[in-house]
Amino acid sequence: MTAPSPNTAASVRQRLLNLAREADEEYQLVLGRYVRERFLYRLAQSEHEGRFVLKGATLFVVWTGDPHRVTRDLDLLGYGDSDEAALLDLICDVCATPVPDDGVAFDAAGASAARIRGGQEYEGVRIRLTAHLGSAVVPLQVDVGFGDAVTPRPEYVTLPSLLDFDSPRVRAYPRETAIAEKLQAMVALGIANSRMKDYYDVWFLARTFTFNGETLARAFERTFERRQMHVPTDLPTALSPGFSQDGAKNRQWRAFLAKGRLNAPTLEPVVEHLVAFAYPPLQAVGNGEPFSMIWRPGGPWAHKRADVSSDPTGDKSK
Q: Which of 88, 189, 205, 219 could cysteine-pair with 151, CB 3.0–4.6 Å?
C-alpha cells in the first residue's frame, strides 16, 4: 500500500479543523469520525466486505445526516470465524486495502484483539489499533459481535463523507434491530442499567421515524430468542416508574446529557415515551399475539389505513 502524501494529510487535518470550528465540536472527535469513515471505506473496498454489517451509533449519520451523539468506537456484526487472532488478521488486511490517498495510515503492526466477555453489551472481539493522519495519532476501537439476528435483512447504505472523498457503502443494521437489541439490554439489566445512551437512542428514533408494528415485533421476537431470553408480558423494571423516578438514574441521565451536550427532557417523560412505543409490541410478542399497527413519528400506535404503507424499513417519507 502506498504511504499517504504528507501534503494530503496536512490538507485533511486543516479541513477537519475547520469543520470542527464551524460545528463547535471537539477536534479529536472529528478526527475520530474521519478515521472511522476511512476504515469503513477500506472495508467496503476489500474482499472481506461481506463478513460484516455496520451497527451502533455510526448509523445515525446515515439515518439523519447528523452524528446524533458522541461515539468513539465502531460497532460491527461479524460472520464466520470469531477467533481473536483470525479476526485481527482480517482487520489488518482491511487496513491494508489499497485506496486513493485520503491522508490516513493505519498502524496494523500495533493492533491487538481481546475477547469481550459477559457483563459487556454482548460477547465478541474488540480490536484496538492506531491511525495516523500526518502527525495526528488517532486511536480506533472496533467491536465485533457475532450471532445476532437481524430483522429485516441488512441493506446497503452509504455513509456520508466528511470531506470530498468517496463515501463508504456497506451493509447495515435496520433501525428495528437496533431498537430490539437496546430494549433487550434494558430488560436484562433492569435497575442496574447505566446505559443511558440506549434510552436516548430509542426515544430519538421513536420521535423521528415511522415503524411497522409487525416488523418491529418480529425484530423483538428474534432478538430475545437469539439471546435466549424470555419476552416479558408485564412492564419491565427498565420501563417502570421505579426506574424513571430513581434518584441515581436521574443523576446518570443528567450527566449523560451534559457530557454529550444533548437536548432531551428529564428521564421520566423519556421512559414514558418508551413505554408507549416499545411495550405494546413487546407485550404482544410475549403473549404470542400479532401486532398489526403503525407508528408515526412521535406516536401513538394506530391501526393501519388502506393508504398507509407498511414499508418495513420505517421510511418516514411514506
A: 219
Give the Cα separation of 29 and 216 in Å (integer): 32
Q: Is the pLDDT of residue 308 over 70?
A: no
Q: Report yes or no: 73 and 98 within 8 Å, Cβ to Cβ.
A: no
Q: Which of 121, 125, 148, 162 is nearest to 13 (CA)?
A: 162
Cell (9 digits) for 146: 457475532
Task: Give percent above pLDDT 70 in the chain.
Answer: 94
Q: Tell me, what's the pLDDT at 313? A: 45
Q: Where are the domains of the chain?
A: 6-173, 176-303
Grouping H, G, I as helix, E, B as strand and the rest as coil, residue 197 is helix
Res 86: pLDDT: 95
Distances (CA, A) of 239 to 200, 205, 262: 13, 17, 21
Q: Which residue has the cell 489499497?
A: 98
Q: What is the pLDDT of residue 211?
A: 98
Quickly count: other Cβ atoms within 10 Å of residue 299's Cβ: 14
Q: Enter the C-alpha cell of residue 183.
A: 430494549
Q: Tell the burial category of 95 from Cβ atoms under 10 Å away from its Cβ (0-12, 13-18, 19+).
A: buried
Give the residue among 120, 147, 290, 145 at the shortest CA–CA distance from 225.
Answer: 147
